[in-house]
Amino acid sequence: MNDISISRRMASLRSAVLPIVHLLEQERIVEIMLNPDGCIWVEEAGKGMYRTDIRMSSDDAERMIRLAAAAVHTEVNERHPSLAATLPGWGARLQASVPPIVSSPVFALRKPPVVVFRLDDYVDAGIMTAEQAAYLEGCVYARRNVLVGGGTGSGKTTLTNALLAVVAATGDRVYIVEDNPELQCRAENMVNVLVHPPFYTHQHAVMDAMRFRPDRIIVGEVRDGAALDMLKAWNTGHPGGIATIHANHTSAMLDRMAQLCQEVMPSAPRYLIAEAVDVCVHISRNDRSSAGRIVTGIAEVKGLGDGGEWLLEQRFGQGIPELCCIGGP
């Protein structure tokens, strides 16, 4: 595509997003959502989610979605009514749907972080304690494999960026896999790979990582059968990895990892999971916290019990440290 075509497409896209362009350019706005009724909702740092007085027509929304789809060489229509892409020009992660699966075009835009918070910032904000921060920093320097879990919008990526700030200081060669450029790492020796399913999947990227001679393999969000390849890589000469996963608590993070592995094999490799993952960190939304989030659990993985249950030592956030046997095959 020539420069003139790209320029025209960007001009068309900017026209389509005109009702929300000022939101895209406000640093404190982290997420922008359009509902079928045309109302725009946002999530603002330090303020939470609320409805704005802005409305967006279905025509503008559909035009924006189609232009974003064209930028990644795909289409959105009745046969393909869902889109996961990056909004050109702003780098925001776009998840969108059009009729017939919804009554009117809808989307959720997640903006990439502008500022990388460090672990000390988490302590200052009351999201974690100084002891927790020191422990996590020590885990990174000790090249332990860390899994960061939480629900949607809990701050998994932002916390991962804080851990990557520590990784950058190690001088290690870093290989990052993600589907949208959200992870921020200032390591001098780094390869950042963006997946584009179905052409290039998470599984392909993780498998390719082995040939790039990485010291650490970082996965923005563990998905599908790539979980198995990542675990194998972490467990065969590439310790010090970090990955995020959707889960409700520390033990559920390992359960979710097992479920993802079962997408490509009949039985979950619980021994491999317990061997490869060293530490589970869980972060949650918390309306009582001024920051809106809090680290709710940090657990060390100690292996498997006789019945195949996870052996976890809860270190912080869940009372007195003790060895817990949780879950079975």
TrEMBL record:
It holds the Pfam family T2SSE. Residues 210-224 form the Bacterial type II secretion system protein E domain. One of its GO terms (cellular component) is cytoplasm. It comes from the Bacteria. Belongs to the GSP E family. This is P-type conjugative transfer ATPase TrbB. GO terms for molecular function: ATP binding; ATP hydrolysis activity. InterPro entries: Conjug-transfer_TrbB (IPR014149), P-loop_NTPase (IPR027417), T2SS/T4SS_dom (IPR001482), T4SS_GSP_E_ATPase (IPR050921).
